[in-house]
Structures are given as structure tokens and as C-alpha cells.
């Protein structure tokens, strides 16, 4: 499934639809260049979960935890990950907790990822940094991820 996104607000609405249909233990992998909208989408997800604190990119901290929403949100960004840094994070602990794990730059830790997840690839439509036009491609892996993608699709049509 591919979606055309034409504004930051629409990207946040996608995040809200993901949150509305999410369940504990869901894993969302976000791929895309810098500035593609990964954190913007996660902000919409967090807001829909009921998280009141600002959702910020965890680029320099690797993980930000938000536990005040309907489900806990664990937002990870491995863009600046050095190989030894992953040892400081117990990824399995986050994956086993009944929250939502959102991982930006998942390719950096591919060998540690679960088999079931919903992958999203966010691509700029043009090269202009001012443009907010994106294409989001869904890549579900596993039954739960397939169901989640279908639920998001239905949510966005409603």
C-alpha cells in the first residue's frame, strides 16, 4: 500500500491512524532520508496515544520513553548509532513490554529486529526541503502487521 502525503498535518494524521489501531507489542520501523517526516509522523502517533509531552527526535539519546499515553511509546533513532552503543540498550526489554516500539533507521540494527513488524518507507516527492509532499509505502511483515496496515487504511478512509 502506498499513500500520498501532502502536508506535515497529513503526516501527523497518518501517525494518529497508526496509534488509533495500534496494540501493545506493535513494532513500527521507519525508513527514509533525513527530513522525510519520520519524527513528524511519530508526533501524531504520540498525540493520539494521549502523550502530552513534546515528541522529540531521539537522535542524540537513541531512545525516548513516553509512558503517559494509552500505550507506552518507545521512540528509537539509530542514525548516529555506533556498534558498541546498542549494548547500552536492552532492545528485547522494550520489545517485550506492552507498548509501541518505533524505530528510525532500523537498517543499523537489522540483525536484532523482530520478525514481525510494520515497515514504513517515507520518500520525498521532490528535492525541495520546503516541500511537504511525501509517498509512504507500507511493508507489513507478519499477520499482526498485515492486520495493522489494513486497519490504518480503513481508519484513513473513515
UniProtKB/TrEMBL annotation:
InterPro entries: P-loop_NTPase (IPR027417), T6A_TsaE (IPR003442). This is tRNA threonylcarbamoyladenosine biosynthesis protein TsaE. GO terms for cellular component: cytoplasm. Belongs to the TsaE family. GO terms for biological process: tRNA threonylcarbamoyladenosine modification. Keywords: ATP-binding, Cytoplasm, Magnesium, Metal-binding, Nucleotide-binding, tRNA processing. It is found in: Cytoplasm. SUPFAM superfamilies: P-loop containing nucleoside triphosphate hydrolases. One of its GO terms (molecular function) is ATP binding. It comes from the Bacteria. The keyword Disulfide bond does not apply. The gene is tsaE. Coiled coil: none annotated. It comes from Lactobacillus corticis.
Amino acid at each position: 500500500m502506498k499513500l500520498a502525503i501532502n502536508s506535515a498535518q497529513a503526516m501527523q494524521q497518518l501517525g494518529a491512524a497508526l496509534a488509533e489501531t495500534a496494540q501493545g507489542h506493535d513494532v513500527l520501523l521507519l525508513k527514509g532520508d533525513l527530513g522525510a517526516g519520520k519524527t513528524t509522523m511519530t508526533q501524531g502517533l504520540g498525540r493520539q496515544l494521549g502523550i502530552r509531552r513534546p515528541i522529540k527526535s531521539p537522535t542524540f539519546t537513541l531512545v525516548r520513553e513516553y509512558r503517559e499515553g494509552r500505550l507506552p511509546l518507545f521512540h528509537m533513532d539509530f542514525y548516529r548509532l555506533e556498534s558498541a552503543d546498542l549494548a547500552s540498550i536492552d532492545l528485547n526489554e522494550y520489545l517485550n513490554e506492552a507498548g509501541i516500539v518505533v524505530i528510525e533507521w532500523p537498517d543499523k540494527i537489522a540483525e536484532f529486529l523482530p520478525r514481525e513488524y510494520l515497515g514504513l518507507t517515507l520518500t520525498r516527492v521532490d528535492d525541495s526541503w520546503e516541500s511537504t509532499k511525501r509517498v509512504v509505502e507500507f511493508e507489513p511483515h507478519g499477520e499482526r502487521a498485515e492486520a495493522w496496515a489494513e486497519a490504518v487504511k480503513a481508519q484513513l478512509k473513515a
